[in-house]
Predict the 3D structure of the following.
Amino acid sequence: MIDDIYTIDLLIQKILTDDKQYDLSKIITAYEFADKAHMGQTRSSGEPYIVHPLAVGYILLELGMDTDTICAAMLHDVVEDTPVTLDEVRKRFGQDVAMLVDGVTKLNKVPMFNKEEQQAENVRKMMLAMSQDIRVIIIKLCDRLHNMRTLSFRPGHKQRNTALETMHIYAPIAHRLGIRAVKDELEDLAFHYLDPYAYSEIEHIIDIKKGEREEFISTIKERIANRLRIEEFESPPYIEGRVKSIYAIYKKIFINNKTIDEVYDKYAVRIIVTTVGECYNVLGIMHDMFRPLPNRFKDYISTPKPNMYQSLHTTVLGRERIPFEVQIRSWDMHYTAEYGIAAHWKYKEGIQGKDKMEQRLAWVRQVIEAQQTSDDVEEIVRIIKNDIALEDIVVMTPKGDSITLPTDSTPIDFAYKIHSQIGHNTVGAKVDGKMVPLDYKLQTGQIVEILTSKEDKAPNRDWINIVKTNEAKSKMRSWFKKERREENIITGKAELEKEFKRFRIDVPEEHLPEFLSDDLKKHNCSTIEDFYASVGYGGITLSKIMTRLRDSYIKKYGDEAEKIESTNIIKPKHDVNRKSGIVLDNIDDVLVKFSQCCNPLPGDEIVGFITRGHGISVHTQNCTNYKSAMAKGNNLERWVGVEWTNNVRASMRTGIKVIANDRVGLMYDISAILADAKIPINHSSSRILKSGNAIFEASINISGKEQLNNLFERLKKVKDVISVDKAGL
Ligand code: MN
């Protein structure tokens, strides 16, 4: 479909051959209206603009969305890009279509992937639009899908940003909404732009293996079909060979450190039947026909995945002892797996769509709720990334009810998931009958029992830093907000004073309301006490606003601030800045930043530079900036001695750059070494240089110079590698 040109005729044809009832004339009117409005406009590809709304409408038709959604797809860019107003759309097509167009237009307003803060702001808007009518986000996802399909016509820097945004925001949302087809395609397209080299390598290997694979799968399918023919079914089972997406294969290799053979030769067959009973029946037959591999059976029918995915999975040995996976599911489950929330429109009568829709919307509401107890906009992006993208775990209550939680959840998360009061009253926890500490990380399949105090008690403030779920965090925050105002004010005030001291801000107390007036307004605080209280329960995160406060302090109190700074610096004191793992020579507890120019790592000889108002920036002693400052004699008094503490716990981020002769398998050899050394990769990319050599760049977390040197030694030994260096992030 991707290469075809989208026309209204194509759409009409699709509508007429669909089982679903559509208001064809309304859709055609919407098309004609949009066509006229966009007349004369073109896409970056040179095609008339109307091709884009038509394509988005077509994708939505494939998902089975309703008439109003298709009309809104036709009209989704007219308010933004043409003189047409929302009122006109409302008059011509009704309130529903207008609301959908408005929702999509609002989402388009702020480009999402520039500053993290702005990104968060837009995600917040997206969540709100979603909670209003989930169709808005489904249109937006399809809009993004077509824009990704035609991304090659956009300039290079836009490609990368759009691809990043797609990978980090849109694909995870499609995943949580269960729209698998859209999610897979978004990921593959984004991956193609983010790491073209790895993409084409996987593509190439799949191509080589295609023949073998198809032959194996078709033999297996035939054997299964013959065997199932002698059983009774409501209607004949449907058997298909399963194809993994390129990005899924990449993830397996990169994250699970598998070779391409291990991943790709894991053949898979899917069997679709009518009833749940038939699913288990087929499972029995499969285990009778082929030898099942131990511990590979997963029953996602009795325990669905968090995005409501249901199926039976088992891995069995075929002829020639080649293992393959069998997935067994009913048609209902299949629709849910493929179309997710969109199945509600596509198969409205067929399934209990309403309940599933409610469950999915519950997630949207939960995210919005978490936002309301937190003013920290960046947290919202984290929520999307964590709550959606992480694989979840499923644990049990002693009664056998299953509870789904994100990976790394603690017994406290579990307690709050059951009930707020149980969370507050938690005094201990047992996992599989044994006592565990409250920061214990739960694993799938464990039975968790929460021990509670008989009388209502207060949650422990430290728990906020231990728990994984936003649900637990926001429940605790709202408890503190409500129950402990006096205490919050005291805690908040003390915290503010500490931060002010650290940032060398000295504002007389009577001037504070004026000094903080913007922040009071922004957080709906009518008094300074309200502000303290919010800081106290965690609604306002001071570290997020300190740099800005410091700037406005310098602006307002100018000279005085400079004076205070210089007197602080000569204070003779040894102190350990625990957070950054550095011993500071002669400096009070101040902010420490690692400079981007030389990326110091534990083990490097370092030196500190006292910045004006932003603490100390740390450089390596052979940093060119440091050397030239020494040579020129600039600001000599601001360079100070610093050294690493003995036990640096935190790992640090650095960049590496590998240049090599291009060959198949190179990327895997490099990534295998990183995986083997258990070095986390924040992001990586590779491309072919003009010279024909391949370059691989990655941002990694490393514990120190020694680990980095070891890594370099190992990477240099990889066949065809020419050089390995540190690189900018
Ligand atoms: Mn669009």
In short: The mean pLDDT is 79. The chain is about 50% helix and 15% strand.
